[in-house]
Amino acid sequence: PVFAAILVAAGKGTRMGGTLPKQFQQLGPRAVLAHSYDALACHPRIANVVCVVHPDDRARAAALLPPGTVLVAGGADRVASVRAGLAALPDAATHVLIHDAARPLLPRAVTDRVIAALAAGAEGAAPALAVIDALWQEDTGGTVARAVPRDGLWRAQTPQGFALPALRAAHARPLPADAADDVAIARAAGLRVDIVAGAEDNFKLTHPGDLDRAARILRARAM
Ligand code: CTP
Ligand code: MG
Fold this sequence. Notes:
Blueprint: E1 3-9, E2 26-27, E3 30-31, H1 32-41, E4 46-53, H2 58-64, E5 70-73, H3 78-87, E6 95-100, H4 108-119, E7 124-130, E8 135-138, E9 144-148, E10 154-156, E11 160-163, H5 164-171, H6 182-188, E12 193-197, H7 210-222
Parallel strand pairs: 1-4, 1-6, 4-5, 7-12
Antiparallel strand pairs: 2-3, 6-11, 7-10, 7-11, 8-9
Helix pairs in contact: 5-6
The structure holds cytidine-5'-triphosphate and magnesium ion (MG).
Cytidine-5'-triphosphate binds near residues 16, 74 and 204.
Organism: Pacificitalea manganoxidans
Protein name: Bifunctional enzyme IspD/IspF
Family: Belongs to the IspD/TarI cytidylyltransferase family. IspD subfamily. In the C-terminal section; belongs to the IspF family.
């Protein structure tokens, strides 16, 4: 198998705020995008990384990434950005890992588990964490209607990995209503997706304060 990766970095980071989208904000000595790119590009099993960015951010991204990095223009939503990345993968790739640029602290071991599942024949494999807290369905008006059983519920992460022909076929079908990520699209096409263990460090930078949390983790790793 030949593993390629798509790094989706074309979002605007509206929930995070700031003058630049979150993937271009600073995390320790480098921009978030440089961390998430290296997590993929430095993995020994990943042959190629395509980075999807908003056309407005192309020059900014190019300045942060190694010369010659393949940059493609993203779309209006994440699915459109993934599709732009799929169109730019090298022909030799047999499998693809799709990763959020907003998850800069991806541990090597998480990528290892996704790749191992695919190498063992899974059509898809993605990291996740079991839900720990109780879950509530809210009533109208901010009161608890009922508890929801959390057994068998998982918090999805990336990189989400797939056999490339199977994922391309899934993307060629009409989008499911809940097309939140590629696992949802793969499932709608009937693909089997293995759950592998994610990691707390692999959280998605979303809200103000998340960069401070990531910086603390980064400092702890350096000690
Ligand atoms: N993404 C993308 N293209 C889009 C939207 C999102 O490539 N049109 C990417 C983001 O850059 C991010 C990942 O998908 O790395 C996960 O999306 P999210 O965390 O929602 O990031 P944003 O959409 O940028 O943030 P927000 O929803 O707060 O605006
Ligand atoms: Mg978004």
